Amino acid sequence: MTKSELLFDQARKVIPGGVNSPVRAFRAVGGTPIFFERAEGAYLFDADDKRYVDYVQSWGPMVLGHAHPDVIDAVVEAAEQGLSFGAPTESETLLAEELCRVWPNMDLVRFVNSGTEATMSAIRLARGFTGRDKIVKFEGCYHGHSDSLLVKAGSGALTMGVPSSPGVPAALADHTITLTYNDADAVRQCFAEIGNEIACIIVEPVAGNMNCVPPVPGFLETLREVCDESGALLIIDEVMTGFRISLTGAQGHYGVRADLTTLGKVIGGGMPVGAFGGRRDVMEYIAPLGPVYQAGTLSGNPVAMAAGLTTLELVQEPDFYELLNEKTEALVDGILAAAKEAGIPMTANRVGSMFGFFFTDAESVTNYQQVMACDTERFNTFFHGMLEEGVYLAPASYEAGFMSVAHSKDDIDYTISAARRVFDRLKASA
Ligand SMILES: Cc1ncc(COP(=O)(O)O)c(C=O)c1O
Ligand SMILES: N[C@H](C=O)CCC(=O)O
């Protein structure tokens, strides 16, 4: 047995399914999860000290690569001053100032500990501000695991085959309207019927929890329009895309403005951080200024703030995103070319440094139904082949992939050559 297998056996005795988040369990792809011991730059090292080129990047945060020395120094320095005070610290204000300076339309921002808390709080705020209960989300989009949002959700919920979870009260789920991603007509129709009952739309501006599905032209703009017409708020969930696809996330990339933005992942540089922020009049509705309650013992934690501040400083170095995007383009183009050479039908989506491959004859994939129609078995064989070659992809075909600036040309070339070998084996066994 490998050390990972032994550790998994040990974990299963005391942790449900041996994991603390379902997507880690390899249920979608089969086999047992790899247990990692350390990480550096583009690489993960497992418990047997095998090295992997990593395209999961802790599900997105590690845009600088793992254990960047400046981030580690900042974390150590902050930790030496005390781990948590449960009281205000300057570092919270500094990170908030940075977010409000860089981000479009962010007048005020509140820190929390995860993306789930950020979206859950933003939804409560939208309901409190508008005095309405209904919310609109899109099938296959994942916004964390709060009750209102775990309806027809993506990510780990898809791998379990239960995109709507037991335990969510029907009465609450009834307030969540789920529409097809990229279907602007369905959005218009819904708002024409009950627009004045809807508190908010929440959307992944690039869906990254049903593989990687970008918005079609006009989709995000339609969401803005119907919200303006109906008085609903537009929540753009940039937990994954924020500081990932560009410095100003999807809103900068596509030129669409949110009333509230949710952030996470990159803004914590690998530490547990989330945030929600936006229009002053809406954010002033949050306690202690306003009546909508929201709180957190560890929110704005000084060690996490230090990691976030240093990360945001580094992503603003000249040409950071150009370099990151070029690397991602080289990887995606190389793998697509290798699939074509091997005669394996495949397409890909990419926005900035987020990407996804689809085993399909279709020319493009733009919604949940198309994602679900792809050849999952072939993906799973591809996944295990790449794992053997020392390349770590997300262990499910419903997750986006991520690049970091630490990935070298050699890492990318190696990954493409590994894919070529795996495709050849796939072809031989077909
Ligand atoms: C778009 C999006 N929103 C929210 C979340 C929830 O974040 P977390 O896992 O930090 O709770 C995630 C990821 O899990 C996400 O990708
Ligand atoms: N797809 C999820 C986040 O983006 C994966 C993270 C998790 O749920 O563990």
TrEMBL record:
Its cofactor is pyridoxal 5'-phosphate. Pathway: Porphyrin-containing compound metabolism; protoporphyrin-IX biosynthesis; 5-aminolevulinate from L-glutamyl-tRNA(Glu): step 2/2. It holds the Pfam family Aminotran_3. It catalyses: (S)-4-amino-5-oxopentanoate = 5-aminolevulinate. Homodimer. It comes from Biformimicrobium ophioploci. It is found in: Cytoplasm. Keywords: Cytoplasm, Isomerase, Porphyrin biosynthesis, Pyridoxal phosphate. It comes from the Bacteria. NCBIfam families: hemL, PRK00062.1. The gene is hemL. Belongs to the class-III pyridoxal-phosphate-dependent aminotransferase family. HemL subfamily. It is an enzyme of class 5 (isomerase). This is Glutamate-1-semialdehyde 2,1-aminomutase.
